[in-house]
Amino acid sequence: MNLRQYMEAFGPLADPDLFETASLLMTTGLSGKARTKHLRSSLYKGKTPWKNNRALLKDIDRLPRGVEWVSDEIVIGEDSNERVYTVFKRDIVKVVGELIGAPRFKNHMRYAPERHWTSRNRRQRVYDEMWSGEWWWRTQDPYGTIVPLIIASDKTCLTRMSGGGQQAYPVYLTIGNISKSIRRKPTKHATTVIGYLPVDSFNDIPNIRTRQLYRGELLHRAMEKIVEPLKSTTNGVPMWCADSQLRRIYPILAAYVADSPEQFDVSCVVRSGCPICKQTYKGRGDGGCNAPFRDQTETLEAMREYRRTRKKRELDPLKLKPWWPFWADLPYVEFPSCLTPDLLHQIHKGLIKRHAMTWIEEFMGPKDFDARYTAMPTAKGMRHFKKGITTVSKWTGRESKEMAKQFLPVIIDPLIPNDVVKLIRALLDFTYLAHSARLTETELAAMVEALGTFHQLKNTMVEWEIVSPGAWDDMPIMHMVTHYSYSIRQLGTPDGYNTESPEYLHIPFVKEGWRASNKKNPIPQIVKYVGRMQAIRIHQTYLDELYPERTKPRERENIYNDDEDYEDDGNVNEKDDSCYESDDAEVELGPANTAVGAHIDSEDSGIAYPRPLLSIALQPTVPRVSGTTLVDTYGASDLMPALTRFLRPKCLAVGEDHYLLPTDRFDVWHKLTLHHDVLPFAPDEPAQRDVIRVKPPVRDHAGRLRDAGVFDVALVLDKPQAFGLKRYRAGRVRALFTLPRRLQHLHPGPLAYVELFAGFRPDQSATHAMYTTTRLGSLADGRRCAVVPIERISMACHLAPRFPNMEPIHTRGRKRTVPVFNPRNDLLCHSHQFFFNEFYNYFTYLFVMYWRYFYYENPTLP
């Protein structure tokens, strides 16, 4: 189709300017009445061909929509309980054709399985994308191209109040040929909705078994309608692919993403069983994984016998539910192996929040437990629980993850048995490893070992009467997590099958359509809304191809592994950043307006260390600050001696003698950003961005504290020849500044005043395995502070106080013998011993684990 034909076919919307107007009116959340009001206003009147919303929608509905929506009916129940439901769906095979043929995915697509290794000697297998797993290798046909289907379903409430009655049950589809880094970005549209399942609780049916039967039948018969086109693909389907090649495609259900309860429902397995293997109820909490995997042929044969005889004894040996599965007749499907790890519900909301948090609360008591979270020093990207954690009313995956970051240092206490600390450490190691985007066989073995340690020590909870004997069998997730390593080897790492993804997709595919509806029988209206949004996206793609010179740069994807910011950074009034780069701690900064990519220091030994690209605002946050203000307000108490030590060798080098004067003024910044490149030993992980905040307290005119301020802690390069964490010392950054102009020829770039902590020491007790450090109380303990070039700041870090060893705190003139855990108390000043919290973020954890593995293989390192 040429341009003229295109314009004639779609009328006014072929005009890019008019389409931009229509797109804005349709995608900014305006109601139909509001759109009409806009079109009749002086801003639009006479400039658009639409008099009202109806005319606009008429043109929108003329646009191509891709795979059309259709409805189908299913009948559930019998006799007086017979009911008819409507399933809204799109042809799944045609949707696969859209995804596999989309040119935008050309550079992110694979058509055959691959095996990855850590080195050329092929000793260490690597698992990441779906095409690196064994399932694809096992299923691959040499004369066809497999398209692994990844289906996700998740029921969601439409009304804000729980139990409000209206729910939606969308079903999403993506394909394993597309890289997971693209699949999990909603803006890439690599995952799309293919249907909406009907929802009914059947609460009006008094018989519980009948009610459960109808619920299961409704789910499976509706899903059967959605996947029905796959039954005709046994011999493959010719499709044009993103690389303009014609291939015979075999779309096969490879992964089903669902939360734990839904995994049992779609597998037709009762809660006392396991949807993946034949593990019995008794002993499933022991941690073993010795039961054989479920055999699909055996499962279907048992169900056929039940349908013939209607005797429950046919189902009991395999712990099956009495409804026919939707996946029974799908070609080449092994459904038990399709179920993927559910990190959100099984780990974060399950083992960590529901179980581990409850156990520790029993040991410590809620008051002390909350107080430690309340008093925990803050760090950028880590939530500060100002009111504790036991009072959190709504727990999401985000709260569970933030709680886990601080969990281990909080629980280290004489009241907590060492075995419990080891158990929590093992659980966190398992969690963080399972989070990885790329896992080697060594790391999978470490996961299995951590899980084994957890199961080995969990009976400590029984000995302390925290958990009742036999309770482990009532926790199905205790067994489900034992299948993680198998699933990773089959389908790749769990981040490609995150159950959080459907929750994000609910916004464009459910919530927005719900808000645009009249709230009565909403699903057909949601379907119409989704179709219109799809048409707008498709039309925008056509216009971009027809008018490439008009194509606007899309909003840049966030490539950083940023944690959500919970704390207020304050109004620091930063302007455009200028980037500084250095090759080591002694090299001068480059030009202020030069931006050079970040890199990782590998040195001669091949060991990776953080070497970030630093950026700081072009203009200071506060110009011309006196030294007295830096000392009194910023807390840089030894600024003048430290600055003198820094300048002395530079003065000697140039043969000059300079003194700091009371009239000297310093330009001061409140933020330093560190841009880390992708790690060479974890190339699939996103790049990291650290922010060092240096913000002084703010008081009102009466001297009352309005903002306590924040001074972050960072790793400062101390011994370049040492290995791992021993290279660095923790330093609390109290000031970011430049020298007065008369001294800038000695050092023109920004400097940092840091309060240094002692060198890191490994855990001597072999319980928590965290490095420790201490606050330097006197010069005899070592140099307490220093002025350093900002290039020596290598990465942000978090120091957690050792709560049992805290010093007494003076309060209102009296010395308390019991530590005061209060967010207003700066524990970085009041505590003496600290833990280097490697769970602060995943970037820190990766580096610490990498250095540990390297040291185990090379124990002679300094």
Automatic annotation (TrEMBL):
Residues 554-573 are annotated as: Disordered. Residues 560-571 have a biased composition (Acidic residues). InterPro entries: Plavaka. This is Zn-finger protein, putative. It comes from Rhizoctonia solani AG-3 Rhs1AP.
